[in-house]
Amino acid sequence: MRGRRHLWITYLLLSACDVGYFSQSSPETRPFQEQPPIQDRSPTAPDRPLTDQQREVLRMAADVLSQIQLVSIKENIEYCGYIVLNPDNMLKIIGPEPGSTFGCRTPLVYKPDVILASYHTHGRFDSRTLTETPSSTDFQAVGVEHVDAFIGTPGGRLWRLDSLTLVATMVCGRADCLPRQTPTPRDLDRPVPRILTQQEVFEIERRVPDLKRR
Ligand SMILES: [Zn+2]
């Protein structure tokens, strides 16, 4: 995913989603409410607890990624977008926008909405890329945008890349997580670390010749 600087102008974005595959024709809006804590399903999740708002953002990211996973896998392109907070204290999904096989330009977000997180898919299994983990490009985008990123992989994994710590954590894995590619290529079931730092991702990528990044 390649982040794009958002444009701050004074009217609201009404709809950034018109790809025709989704049940909702406009960005989903739901009120933000204090909710009882849920357990992060990753047994190795960092100790730093998520705020109620971060947990709701995570739920929305999981929802929207679940909806676009199979389309992204079928077309082998990335889809991407944002989760924003509007002046009425409502969380809203912007996108998803279709990208390309190796990139996705995030939709514009308009002031006074505030971007809280980005999300994107990793398309279909592709031997040219490491689909099951966040890429160094993902870390770089988070470093520029300073908001968390959520990533869905063709193996059905959901990642959260924390913008404060620059640590990626697998929220859930192959079972009981996002829709996944079927039939499933064997490489998608190879175990991957559940926590990755930017430096670790750089080192992993350095060992892969002619790597394409998503
Ligand atoms: Zn990515």
Secondary structure elements and their pairing?
Blueprint: E1 29-31, H1 52-75, E2 79-85, E3 90-98, E4 114-121, H2 136-145, E5 148-152, E6 158-162, E7 167-172, E8 195-197, H3 198-206
Parallel strand pairs: 4-5
Antiparallel strand pairs: 1-3, 2-3, 2-4, 5-6, 6-7, 7-8
The structure holds zinc ion (ZN).
The site of zinc ion has 8 residues, from loops.
In words, what does this structure look like?
It is built from 3 helices and 8 strands; from the N terminus they run βαβββαββββα. It has 214 residues and is an alpha+beta fold. It has one domain. An 8-stranded mixed β-sheet has the order 1-3-2-4-5-6-7-8, with helices on both faces. The chain starts with 28 loop residues before the first strand and ends in an 8-residue tail after the last helix. The model is unreliable at 5-28 and 33-45 (pLDDT under 50). Zinc ion is lined by residues 1, 120, 122, 134-135, 138, 151, 214.
Radius of gyration: 16 Å
How many individual domains? Answer: 1
Instruction: Give every kind of bound small molecule, once each.
Output: zinc ion
- The number of helical elements comes to 3
What is the typical, i.e. mean, pLDDT? 83
Structural class: alpha+beta
- Unreliable spans: 5-28, 33-45
Helical percent range?
10-25%
**How much of the polypeptide forms β-strand, as a percent range?**
15-25%
The rounded distance between the terminal residues' Cα atoms is 6 Å
Overall 3D form: globular
Spell out the helices and strands N to C: EHEEEHEEEEH
Oligomeric state? single chain
